[in-house]
Amino acid sequence: MPDIVALGEPLVEFNQARSTDPTAYVQGFGGDTSNMAIAAARLGASVGYVTRLGADRFGRMFLDLWMREGVDAAGVALEAEASTGVYFVTHSTQGHEFSYLRAGSAASRMRPDTLPLAVLRTARLVHASGISQAISATACDAVFAAFDIARAQGSLVTYDPNVRLKLWPLTRARACVLAAAAQCTWCLPSREDAALLFEGLAPDAVVDALHRAGARGVVLKQGADGCLVSDGARREHLRAHRVQSVDATGAGDCFDGAFAARLLAGDDPFAAARYANVAAALATTGFGAVAPLPRSADVERALEQQAAA
């Protein structure tokens, strides 16, 4: 059984091609917790995924992807009466924009009583996100149930708020994020999450607020400004790894996967976050959510270069 288990919704991606034809799209894969699982697997961790897929071509494509990437799919179920979610990425001078076809998706049919208990009870770390919660009320309940299972057996819980206001209103998002923070070992918000959830608060005040909510540890991801790490007793700002970034899609998910992988490999949280900073930076040097996710050799090489600089 896998050491790391992520729970959420995978999405098939159609990314507008960088060409003169605006109707051309490149097919790929996304979904924040699926990206996280693949990132952790590429970095050497034992990883599994929990979700529900449509019994359709896109669902089979995900099963093939996870097999190729070494992500255990024993916790994945197929839904004959629902489809696998899809999203489109379009590009303009204002940046990239996401459009989703996910209402009523198979993953949104997750419920506490559909969770694969054997997979969750043997995991050393369980991961989910705010998107995992936002896709439906029953999926939100399933996330809290999965966290309860992990906590009952002394496993780590990591949680990325990943706030998406297209999925739910801010008031509900804030309530669910703070409730999840109270259950997690490590809360992993982005700077964008913090701006929505704690408008006007400085980074240290955001970390303080999440500790007060009950999070034992917090990593505030700040993109090109690195990250702020706090275990409740020690706090440290870690600088970012400098790269030629072309697409930040999935970088935060990569950070989550790398951080979880290194925690289970025995790193202290500050070393794990330093490693994750580098992995996330490397993930921005290519296009798409999955293709540029780095391998462990890539990260180790970049860390050596960083140390020598």
SSE diagram, text form:
Blueprint: E1 4-7, E2 11-16, E3 25-30, H1 32-42, E4 47-54, H2 57-69, E5 71-79, E6 85-92, E7 95-101, H3 117-121, E8 125-129, H4 130-134, H5 137-152, E9 156-160, H6 170-181, E10 186-187, H7 191-197, H8 203-213, E11 217-221, E12 227-230, E13 235-238, H9 251-265, H10 269-283, H11 296-308
What does this structure look like?
The chain is built from 11 helices and 13 strands. The mean pLDDT is 94. Helix 6 (170-181) links the parallel strand 9 (156-160) and strand 10. With 309 residues, it is α/β, with parallel strands linked by helices. The protein is globular. The strands form 2 sheets. The protein has a 9-stranded mixed β-sheet with strand order 5-4-1-8-9-10-11-12-13, sandwiched between helices. A 4-stranded mixed β-sheet has the order 3-2-6-7. It has a single domain, classed as 3-Layer(aba) Sandwich (UDP-N-acetylmuramoyl-L-alanine:D-glutamate ligase), CATH 3.40.1190. Helices cover 40% and strands 24% of the residues. The longest helix is centred in the middle third of the chain and has 16 residues, at 137-152. The N and C termini lie far apart (40 Å).
Short description:
By secondary structure, the protein is an alpha/beta fold.
Strand content: 15-25%
Overall morphology: globular
Structural class: alpha/beta
Order of helices and strands: EEEHEHEEEHEHHEHEHHEEEHHH
